[in-house]
Amino acid sequence: MSAVIETAEAGRRAQTKARNREAILAAARRVFAELGYEAASVRDIIRRTNLASGTFYNYFRSKEEIARALAADAAERLRPLLRAERERAADLEGWLDGVIGAYFRYLVEDYGGHAAALPHVRIDATPAQRAVFEEVRESLTRILGDRLAPQADMAYLTAGAIGIARYVGEQMLRRTPPDPDGAARIAVRLILHGLPAAARTA
Amino acid sequence: MSAVIETAEAGRRAQTKARNREAILAAARRVFAELGYEAASVRDIIRRTNLASGTFYNYFRSKEEIARALAADAAERLRPLLRAERERAADLEGWLDGVIGAYFRYLVEDYGGHAAALPHVRIDATPAQRAVFEEVRESLTRILGDRLAPQADMAYLTAGAIGIARYVGEQMLRRTPPDPDGAARIAVRLILHGLPAAARTA
Amino acid sequence: MSAVIETAEAGRRAQTKARNREAILAAARRVFAELGYEAASVRDIIRRTNLASGTFYNYFRSKEEIARALAADAAERLRPLLRAERERAADLEGWLDGVIGAYFRYLVEDYGGHAAALPHVRIDATPAQRAVFEEVRESLTRILGDRLAPQADMAYLTAGAIGIARYVGEQMLRRTPPDPDGAARIAVRLILHGLPAAARTA
Amino acid sequence: MSAVIETAEAGRRAQTKARNREAILAAARRVFAELGYEAASVRDIIRRTNLASGTFYNYFRSKEEIARALAADAAERLRPLLRAERERAADLEGWLDGVIGAYFRYLVEDYGGHAAALPHVRIDATPAQRAVFEEVRESLTRILGDRLAPQADMAYLTAGAIGIARYVGEQMLRRTPPDPDGAARIAVRLILHGLPAAARTA
DNA sequence: GATGAATGAGTTTTCATTCAT
DNA sequence: GATGAATGAAAACTCATTCAT
């Protein structure tokens, strides 16, 4: 077999691998969303794929690993987005608009229709998730700049902001149709000015 | 057997039943806290009890049912507390102080030491939980009174406030020792005035 | 307590005992009929009674024992009937008419409506059942008298006759409404003259 | 892997599957025969196999399902035999000889030695069993031809004939050694001429 | 690397039976 | 003798993972 063909074949193989991996991840995302992590079985995942059950283990060592990979994957996709927004944003409001809008649109895309199954993962179950938390914390710290009291507890504040995004997002998913933009506007206002102020305007 | 004795016996039996139910619930609470809902098995629960395996099924039909009972139980305990605070509180700040303080102290009591395992149950998985959500929503609506724009989306705002409490609470549980009062102060400020204002003070 | 009262009370007790025993037997008969022996549980039986589960064991040592008691009971009720018919009957036809008619009416009474659940008990699972088999065999032997070849295999012939009664009876139970008399007529004719002869007449 | 090898492998796998299925069915047949359906457990069945417990569930969903499969299987094997006899037989006697002889030999083969446990399944528990009943009924109807009164109740007569075969067969299995031919002769005579006639000859 | 049946440890669940009251 | 909750052995069943092909 000539080197050229070998290379071509290797390319094709790599492509197939990537495609299979993606197929498994996509199936897992849907299954976890519909059944929840515990109720979902590897069989459920593989069944939504046209692969054989054993093949799963060529890609992921276990059910736990794919769950981690999924979370990491989500974080991976979130992180550059957060980064980009951090560069672009002039102020806190701009940054929040960008970030929360993107997050809510992502939620609708990935979970719309299965609202009920948004996985309530621990905030820092995986390294990637922790990275997202840190990214948010750093962004907030930087943007707030010297308007930040030295003793301010940024971990709590970051957690609070993420809590708002999470729960308003979940609430949004429950509506038909979900309105990511309206929800984002309210979430941003809530973070910026607090509940009484947010309640005073529509 | 005389009626008197019968009654006494019935009383003792009812007591034993209640005690067993409580023992199982307590064991489940601990097991869920330590292992997480999914990893926990009915065996794990019953093992922490001095009851026989079959006895579990005299009280709960399945692991899912006890989880629901647990959540309902928690909500049940939360609700009167919320109610009481609603009566007592003069303004939003007073109400939030009371409610969030109580919630955080409850968290520390029930999950302190097993911070990692605060169950991230769906906001409205059970009727009791839905009731808590409604209770919070109503309290907020009433306290805000005419400072509330007619078109304000109270479902989103309530979700946001609960999100703050949940995630700041979780963050607090991760600290040793947890400081429910400090965390509550920050959560309240965040809800009242928003993140920039909360960041400006300690 | 005077002897008189004691006696009266003893009588009442004996009555209650007899009534409870009958209640349990009746419930068991229905439960076995509806679910089959294996699927039926002692709980199912006791549930159809207004007795407590433990009480069952004051009357029967086990589920197996009540099944035996039930079969014995059926046989017990069948046997005197067979005996009586044997005395009364002038000839084979008369005896068969009496016996099979009685058996079919008994079937309708006990299993009508639950046709599907006629228990296919082994012909000789219990002593009482064996006794019925023997009773039938003896009756046949006596009534046939010297029209019986010495080498005739009465066990096979008795089994055959019982087989006819059993299966025609089951078939009858499947009809709505069951017609014990029509079925009995055909069964008797079949036993007496064989299938071709029975087919030649209605 | 080349297509040729793939096919070969698929063939081998299919073979193994078929062999395993047969092994489980055979084990179940023996276990049911020895313990009776109710007393038998899936564990008992799988233990007589060199397969793992979970493997059972790759083939049958439950104990009930394998029982049905077994009955269906038996009926499946009986039907072609009945069909063949129907073509071949010149008259009722010939047909009965063929059919009952075959049935009794089949009984001895499958249940000989475990006489006590011939499963008394409902006559029409499965489609295949219903098919056997229908096959017998049709065969009888055709062979009797115009010697059959128009109002004759063939369902009852068929049930009666099958009852004879069943119970005489069971009686035969209880003997050591079983004599399928002797038993068949008597059963046939009983069906053809009735009990008195059958009793008059050996 | 793909396949898919086999594995068997582990889990849930049932239920006949016991026993303190 | 009645009660009914507790018992725990035994059964059914699941499913992540392995492995021969």
Key phrases:
homotetramer, mainly alpha, DNA-binding, 2 domains, Arc Repressor Mutant, subunit A, 73% helix, Tetracycline Repressor, domain 2, 202 residues
Mean pLDDT of chain A: 85
Stated plainly, the CATH topology of the largest domain in chain A is called Tetracycline Repressor, domain 2
Structural class of chain A: mainly alpha
- In angstroms, what is the radius of gyration of chain A? 20 Å
The structural domain count of chain A equals 2
The end-to-end distance of chain A, rounded to whole angstroms, is 70 Å
The total beta strand count of chain A reads: 0
Protein name (chains A, B, C, D): Helix-turn-helix domain-containing protein
Keywords (chains A, B, C, D): DNA-binding, Transcription, Transcription regulation
DNA-binding region (chains A, B, C, D): 41-60
Domain HTH tetR-type (chains A, B, C, D): 18-78
Descriptive report:
- 4 copies of one chain form a homotetramer.
- Chain A has 202 residues and is mainly alpha-helical.
- Chain A folds into 2 domains: 1-60, Homeodomain-like (Arc Repressor Mutant, subunit A, Orthogonal Bundle); 70-200, Tetracycline Repressor, domain 2, CATH 1.10.357.
- In chain A, 73% of the residues lie in helices and 0% in strands.
- The first copy, chain A, has 9 helices and no strands.
- The first copy, chain A, has helices at residues 3-35, 42-47, 56-59, 63-88, 92-111, 127-144, 154-173, 180-193, 195-200.
- In chain A, helix 5 packs across helix 7 (154-173).
- The longest helix of chain A has 33 residues, at 3-35.
- Chain A is elongated.
- Chains in contact: A-B, C-D.
- At the C-D interface, helix 7, helix 8 and helix 9 of C face helix 7, helix 8 and helix 9 of D.
- Chain B binds a DNA duplex (21 and 21 nucleotides) through helix 1 and helix 3.
- Chains A, B, C, D: Pfam families: TetR_N.
- Chains A, B, C, D: Keywords: DNA-binding, Transcription, Transcription regulation.
- Chains A, B, C, D: This is Helix-turn-helix domain-containing protein.
- Chains A, B, C, D: Residues 18-78 form the HTH tetR-type domain.
- Chains A, B, C, D: Residues 41-60 bind DNA.
